[in-house]
Each structure stands twice: as C-alpha cells, then as structure tokens.
Amino acid sequence: MSTEGSSLQDWGIAADEKFSLRLFVAGASSISIRAISNLQSILDEHLKDRYELEIIDIHQQPLLVKEENIFAVPLLIKKLPSPIKRLVGDMSDKAKVLKGLGLE
Questions:
Q1: Are the C-beta atoms of residues 49 and 7 closer than 8 Å to each other?
Q2: Residue 1 lies in a domain
Q3: pTM
Q4: CB neighbour list of residue 1: distance below 8 Å, 6 or more residues apart
Q5: Under DSSP, is residue 44 helix (H, G, I), strand (E, B) or coil?
Q6: Domain containing 78: what range?
Q7: Which of 21, 39, 71, 85 has the fewest Cβ atoms within 10 Å of its own Cβ atom?
Q8: pLDDT in tens, 48-75
C-alpha cells in the first residue's frame, strides 16, 4: 500500500489511537542527531499530533537501558499501539520505519 494520501484508518489504526515511542541514542553523536531528525520528520508527516516520543540518552539512563534490554543504538521501541516493535538504525529508511510502526 502506498503511504501517499493514506489515512491511519487505512492501516487499521483507530483515529484517536496514540503512538508511544522511545528512541534510545548515544549522546549527541552525529548518528543520534540524524536518527532524531529523521524520525521526527517521519512522525510529523504521518502521525502529526498522534504520538509521544521519548528520547533517551543511554549514558544518562543506564538502568532504563538494562530494563529495556537495549543492545544497539539508535534503537526505536514502539510501545503502543500493540504489538511492541523495535527498529535499529538512523531511521533514514522511511519505508522501514513506516513498516516498523505498522504504517505501510
């Protein structure tokens, strides 16, 4: 399915359903900054005000890293809507990010 002109309902997502996301990064590295920028651009285009994005620096939150079993960064965890999904990388592959979010 093309994402052009598609609505969330086309993907089986309720109109009032919010996405809960966590992006784990390693400080202000160039890869981390690129991942944040790429992801925010995709989210703003496809989810507008329908998401909550928590950006977590693994150096600042080591307990959360252990709790979430983080094995590589940047790593995006989609908590809601179910199912939980994980994506690793700088979020530059828009199709991969949309698929991981269940928006393809």
A1: no
A2: no
A3: 0.85
A4: 10, 11, 104
A5: helix
A6: 16-99
A7: 71
A8: 999 999 999 999 999 999 999 999 999 9
